[in-house]
Amino acid sequence: MKKTFKIGGVHPHDNKISANAATEIFPAIETAYVSMAQHLGAPATPIVAVGDKVKVGQVIAEPAGFISGYVHSPVSGTVKAVAPRADIAGNMVMHVEITVEGDEWMEGIDTSDTIVKDIPYTPEEIIAKVKACGIVGLGGASFPTHVKLAPPKDKKAEALILNGTECEPYLTSDDRIMQERPEEILIGAAIMMKALGVTRGYVGIEENKPAAIAAMKAAAAAFPQIRVITLKKRYPQGGEKQLIDAVIGRQVPSGGLPIDTGAVVQNVATSLAVYEAVQKNKPLIDNVITVTGQCLERQRNFKVRIGTPMSKIIEEAGGMPLKAAKVISGGPMMGRAIANLDAATVKANGAILFLTEEQTRRKPESSCIRCAKCASACPMGLEPWLLNKLSRAGGRQAELEQERVYDCIECGCCSFTCPANIPLLDMIRSSKAEVMKIMRSRPKK
Amino acid sequence: MNKLIVSPSPHTHGRESTQSLMRDVLIALAPAMLVSVAVSGWSMLVLILVGAASCVLTEFLITKYLLKRPSTVSDLSAVVTGCLLALNLPPESPWWLILVGSIVAIGVAKMTFGGLGQNIFNPALVGRVFLLVSFPVLMTDWSDQGMFFGLGNVDAFSGATPLGAVKEALKNGATLSQISVDDLTFHQQFFLNIGGSAGELSALALILGFIYLLCRRVVKVTIPLAIFCTVFVVSGIFWLADPEHYTNPVFNVFTGGLLLGAFFMATDYVTSPMTTKGQIIFGIGIGLITVFVRYFGSYPEGVSFAILIMNCAVPLLNKYCKPRRFGEVKK
Amino acid sequence: MTGTILFTIACLVALGLLFAVVLYFVAQKFKVEEDPRIEIVEKILPGANCGGCGQAGCHAFAENVVKAPGMDGFFCPVGGNPVMTKVAEALGRAVEEKAPMVAVVRCNGTLANRARTNEYDGYASCKVMASLYAGDTGCKFGCLGKGDCEAACKFGAIKVDPAKGVAVVDENLCTACGACVKACPKGVIELRAKGLKNRRVYVSCINKDKGAVARKACGAACIGCGKCAKTCPFGAITVENNVAYIDFNVCKMCRKCVAECPTGAIHEVNFPPKPKPHEENV
Question: Is residue C28 situated within a structural domain?
Answer without folding.
Answer: no
